[in-house]
Amino acid sequence: VAKFLSNADLGVRMEGGDISIMEGMIGKGWLGKKSGKGFFSYNGKKKILNPEINDYLKIFVTQDLQLSEKEIQDRLMSRFINEAAKCLEDDIIENAVVGDIGLVFGTGFAPFRGGPFRYIDQVGIDNFVGMMNGFADKYG
Do the beta carbons of residue 21 and residue 60 sit within 8 Å? Predict the structure, then answer.
């Protein structure tokens, strides 16, 4: 899916990822739960961070931004949320409830957040826009 989407003309909003990270992991047989290893190593129901993943990912780092865990989470979620809002704006989805259900069940958006639109309801639109503007000021 990532390879197909990386070749699709989806505009600047979809830039920034490096699919070779996932291709390399597939090449190593790191397929996640089904192979017992991916970003995590699995032993039955127990999972731990794959001890090899940090060394593997270092080859892809071009700049260490010293991001906090919360900032990483916010930046990742904001891409989903921003795109969901564009889908609603462009009438690709009928309403916010459909968007929440689609992202939770279709992409694995964090279910405890309730979906992108529910998340915006929880944090407040002004807070979310402020966070996004802060990212734009900081990272361009």
Answer: yes
